[in-house]
Specification:
This protein has about 100 residues and is an all-alpha fold. The protein is built from 3 helices and no strands.
Length: about 100
Amino acid sequence: ESLPSPGEIKKVRKNLKQYERQFDMQDKERLRALKMEETKGKRAQRTRYRDLVARLRAIRERQKDERIGLMNGYDSDGEGNYIEREVTIETILSSKEEVI
C-alpha cells in the first residue's frame, strides 16, 4: 500500500469534522443497539422470574389444606399466629457539654 497523496490528505483534513460526526453517530447507534439487547435480556429474565414465583405461590396455595391437616389444624401462614411488637432504639450520635 502507498501513502495517500497530498490532495487526499487535504481532502481528509477538510472533511474531518464531518467524518467525526458520522463516526460518533455510528458509535451512538451501536451503543443504543447494545443497550436495547441488554434491556431485552433483562426483561426476559424478569418475566421468567415472575412466572416462577407465581407458579410456586400457586403450588403452595394448593398444598395449604394438606399442610394444615398435617399440623393438626395449625396454619403457619395465618396472621393471627404472630405477635407484632414495636421496638424503638435510640442512639446518641454526639454529645457536647457546655459550662455556663
